[in-house]
Amino acid sequence: MNNEKTFKTKTEFCHILPDKIVLTRNGIIGNVAKVTVGNNISRILIIYGGLSIGLFYFAFDNYRNGQVAQPILFGILGIYLVYGILNSINNSSTPIIDRQKIKEVKFKKAFSSLTRSRFEVLFEDEQSKLRKRIIMLPGSLTDGQSETEKAVKIMTDEKLITNR
Fold first, then answer.
1. CA dist., res. 111 & res. 107, Å (int)
2. What is the DSSP letter of 111?
3. In angstroms, rounded to a whole number, what is the distance separating the alpha carbons of residues 40 and 25?
4. Roughly what angle, to the nearest 10 degrees, separates helices 41-64 and 69-88?
5. What's phi and psi for 93, nearest 5 deg?
6. Could you give the C-alpha distances from 92 to 20, 39, 103, in angstroms and in order?
7. Which of the 8 DSSP states describes residue 29?
8. pTM of the model as a whole
């Protein structure tokens, strides 16, 4: 494991190995085998879909009852959730990414303490579908600037970042 390079993320650690990228919750690569490899984001998207259907129903029902402000608010929230679902449909929560399957790694810089810096890793999964894994970096309250610089340096040294 001498070739391992590690940096902190929002909730876990990211280990850059010669053959793969491994995301762990406690920094110990051996425990990643306990994590079920899969796309657990589908449950969240189903919940968001149910919420958006409910919002559209309430918007329609309130409009039918002659109200104006509530249907507009519920409709906008429902459209926002559907937009989020469509943008997230190919996201993955897999903790292991084979480096040979990586197509592109983009670094997205934080927007003046309102958002977090992140890496967007585009890769092929086992079914040869293009997926996106978002690796969120620590925020400004948890030494995010120095951790982000360390992560960018590691990803650049490993020639993974494609948009710099």
1. 12
2. -
3. 16
4. 160
5. -115, 20
6. 16, 5, 15
7. G
8. 0.74
Whether the CB-CB separation of 71 and 56 falls below 8 Å is answered with no
What is the rounded CA–CA span in Å between residue 153 and residue 5? 10
What are the tokens at 11? 């909730």
Measured distance CA(14)–CA(2) in Å, rounded: 15
58 closest CA partner among 50, 44, 83, 87: 50
- The torsion defined by the Cα of 156, 11, 96 and 16, in degrees rounded to 10, comes to 30
- How many residues are listed for the chain in this entry? 164
Per-residue pLDDT of the chain (164 residues; tens, 9 = 90+): 456 688 888 888 889 988 899 988 764 554 544 444 444 678 888 999 999 999 999 999 999 999 999 999 999 999 999 999 999 888 888 888 999 999 999 998 888 767 888 999 999 988 888 999 999 988 877 777 888 888 889 888 888 887 65
Copy the structure tokens of residue 6: 């590690």
Tell me which amino acid residue 111 is.
Answer: F
Q: Where are the beta strands (DSSP E) in 29-149?
A: 96-98, 102-108, 118-124, 130-136
Residue 133, CB-side half-sphere exposure with 13 Å CA sphere:
27
